[in-house]
Amino acid sequence: MYAVHIWRLTHTIGLSGRVPYEAWTGRKPDVSHLRIFGSLGWAHVPEEVHRGKLESRAVKVCMLGWWTDETKGYRLEDLENGKLITA
Fold first, then answer.
1. What pTM, to 2 d.p., does this model score?
2. In this predicted model, what pLDDT tens digit does every residue of 55-64 receive, in sequence order?
């Protein structure tokens, strides 16, 4: 889904310098939400999940994509245990 979303925001020859999103809606797309695929970062651990005062409040993650099926957000992979996170 992330690749298709990016593809819709790129220029095509048939639209003479416009992107498909702009041709469909008539306005330029906002690309401020895009992040680099595979980039490293940190995801916040909610208070209900971390066990104590001295436990880590963030986990190191790798960005896998954008906009999962159930909610808008980023799909992240926890690098310590390999679990998928939606943030």
1. 0.59
2. 888 889 998 8
